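Inputs:
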Amino acid sequence: MASMEEEFVNALAELDETKTLELAKKRIAAGEDPFKILDDIRKATDIIGKRYEEGRYFVSDLIMAGEILKQVMEILKPVIGEKRGESKGKVVIGTVEGDVHDIGKNIVIALLEAEGFEVVDLGVDQPPEVFVNAVKEHKPQVLGLSGLLTEAIESMKKTIEAIEKAGLRNKVKIIIGGGRTNEEAKQYTKADDWADDAAVGVRKIKALAGVV
Amino acid sequence: MDVEEIRREKIERIEAVIKGKEPDKVPITAATTVWHGAYAGYTPKEVLFDYSKCKDAWLKVAKDFNFDTFTFIPGLEGMIYTIAMLKDAEMAGAARFILGPTHLALGDVFTRWPGYELNENAHPQFIGKEIMKVDEYKQLIEDPLEFVNKVAMPRINKKLANVGSAEYNAAMAKYGAELAKFGAFMAEASAELAKIGYPTFPMSWSYAPLDFIGDFLRDIKNVVMDLYRYKDVVKEAVEAIKPLVIKAAELTAPPAEIRKQIFGTEVVECFFPLHLNEYLNPKLYNEFYWPSLNDVFKEVVKTGQTPFVLFEGKHDAHLETLLEAPKGKIVGVFEKTDPRKVREVLGNHVILVSGPPNSLLIGGTPQKVEEYMKSLLTDCKEGGMMIWPGVDGGISRDAKPENVKAVVEAVEKYGRY
């Protein structure tokens, strides 16, 4: 029989909402180290990300995973407080000026937090200066510029130009993300990388932050 | 050649492709929401709220670029308004999109507009909202039309919140006036386009039933979670919506005599923008999305209309299901699926529409566009296809005119049969 840890990892990776939440509560009630549970969450999100990249999971599965993760984190919060163990790094992320979409950005944030990153979410429709100030203030390893519209590409370019102008370009890696980004858009905006889906985005952000 | 002959030639070119034949050359069916404005020196706000500027820009682009059709996409998804008006053919057809001015008249909570919620240079956006609670599915299923009108519309439109109130009546009157203004503008623009050799194709409106629930009632994220949590009730709701979207297609097609006299064609393109297709894994797609959509396709085809389907995002995982759809009767615009793959899997089962992505029109050069088009046309034009420049949503505000011109030139060079 599988241990409760294995069962928990499997339930989460299989997106079994009821079972995952039940097991999380059980493990806490049994007095388990909450950081051990966090480790298992990371294991499960790794599996979810892999399945996505293998074409077995789709956006709907990531949305459901994000929803379950949110609820598990709510259950864990009272026992771990604000500490989440050792941070894997800091990421600032926001939707660029002129675009108010955020489904993709929010999935990325849920997955990054589950992975142990500290994420600063700037929200939607944010002008270049907000990104510049956030890079100055938070000193993230990675800056994520999100947008769904084809018009977002121009805003991403302007934002990266503003980061460059502020003398911060060599202090932060920049990834653009969204359904209409691609290699062409990466070159045009002078970003370091691009992702048109959330799971690939998380993998690339980890690589840019130097976390393997 | 006189103007009418040019227009006739363009109509025949597109008709040939829709009938599964190769015309003289590959037709270009361009569409945009705000690029014509950018080209003519107007902001998105100006072209979306000031119809004289919009028409000016629309005609300028039509004159300067030799497309076969050039469509102005006037607003954002508003199929629920068509369904709400289903008792009246004229209103149901007119109400299809949420327009800038109708947004102001009704105060919908779904959309954001340049010059109002957004800066005046931004593209308008549909954000959506949860309108129906999960425990209201039952009520929707019992009488969907009643639910749309009595429950959903007052929640969607701030100015219709209090049914029968003075504010409600004034808002509806204003809404009707705005639709009339818009209808007059579209008719006038079509007539002027015809004078410079541009045809307009008759359109009708339908929708994937599950998208209807996701876009207008539950919101995307919620409907996705409902598929995991409340399977049966979602399936019932999909079945309840299905007859309404079929009815909408029948009702909103221009009558046969108008088609012939005004448009000069028998073809009716029934527009389907698909949204959840990219989100759903094949299991969910095959269980909740595709069967009802294919039923709608079949019914629409039976009426002699041609479904014109935007496969938004990546449709790769679901391509094979299209073999179950009526053969050679559906036009498919594939946003991120490689058209070569579409050909490989579907052959001529679906009429292929493809084109360069906006990233190339924005960041590329005419030479890069030419290379892209040469490869696309060489690989895919056999058996007939159409080009849709800026295949991801129509030509983007920031597309460079010289790159759009390069699309037209490349079709001249590599798109002849």
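Chain A touches chain B through 34 residues (CB under 8 Å). Flag for discussion at group meeting.
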